[in-house]
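re: the backbone from monday

yeah here it is again, tokenized this time
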């Protein structure tokens, strides 16, 4: 049995705190929707395919404040309030990933919290509030849904595969249509979900065999990508510094299909984990 180092113990303390915080914030957002409905969410349009609600802002404020109170030395990067990666440890947060789904009452959204230390994502927490399931991982210690270990699927036959294909308006529609055709020609089924964090943890728990999107921001994917990695998945994302600054192309896949999916879908230089 391995013994955790002092650094691991500090990360574990953050792991336990962030898991409780993600669940708390997710349940608050769910209650808020149930009470307010779509007409009471105070929606603002930030841009194409990009909405923000009062619930988003309140959720990020709660996460940022409680993390700062508990770990004042840590940095913070949030979708709504910004921030910057620092030389020490820092948090990367999307308070509600899948805001459009949340806004309209589609039950595919969640709270995403990652922790980065020494140039590596050390923690990933995704709380799927509508199903009350907490997905979490600490680098090197496996992936879990609540207390149960999870792993990616063992699907080998492309004709039996099912994946999730995201669509980003930051990329030309032509590329998205080409990806649809490539999957169709290979006999691979896909769906579109509207939340990268939830889509990627579906890969981690073996419900689907891959998630691909031509462009994601770091807060969309860092937490879920670590969970999928710890569940045995193949992860292709930009180098961390590039991902934090500019976002980029993301693929998470079960190992038996990864090479084929990289050939069919991946177009940019990414880092394999």
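seq for it, each position gets an aa:
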């Amino acid at each position: 049995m391995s013994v955790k180092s002092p650094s691991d113990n500090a990360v574990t303390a953050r792991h336990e705190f962030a898991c409780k915080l993600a669940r708390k914030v997710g349940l608050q957002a769910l209650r808020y929707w149930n009470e307010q409905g779509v007409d009471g969410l105070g929606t603002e349009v930030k841009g194409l395919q990009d909405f923000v609600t009062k619930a988003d802002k309140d959720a990020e404020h709660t996460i940022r404040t409680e993390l700062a109170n508990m770990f004042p030395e840590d940095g913070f990067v949030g979708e709504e309030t910004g921030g910057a990666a620092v030389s020490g440890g820092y948090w990367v947060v999307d308070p509600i990933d899948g805001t459009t789904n949340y806004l309209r009452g589609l039950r595919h959204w969640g709270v995403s919290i990652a922790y980065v230390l020494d140039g590596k994502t050390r923690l990933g927490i995704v709380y799927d509030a509508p199903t009350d399931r907490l997905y979490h991982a600490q680098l090197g210690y496996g992936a879990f849904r609540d207390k149960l270990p999870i792993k990616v699927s063992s699907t080998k036959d492309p004709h039996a595969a099912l994946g999730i294909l995201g669509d980003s308006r930051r990329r030309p529609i032509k590329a998205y249509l080409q990806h649809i055709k490539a999957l169709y020609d290979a006999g691979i089924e896909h769906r579109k979900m509207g939340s990268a964090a939830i889509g990627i943890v579906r890969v981690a728990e073996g419900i689907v065999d891959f998630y691909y999107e031509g462009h994601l921001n770091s807060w969309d994917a860092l937490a879920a990508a670590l969970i999928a990695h710890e569940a045995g998945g193949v992860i292709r994302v930009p180098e961390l510094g590039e991902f934090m600054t500019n976002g980029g192309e993301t693929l998470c896949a079960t190992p038996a299909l990864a090479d084929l999916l990289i050939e069919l879908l991946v177009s940019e230089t990414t880092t394999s984990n």
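DSSP finds eight helices and 16 strands in the chain. The mean pLDDT is 89.
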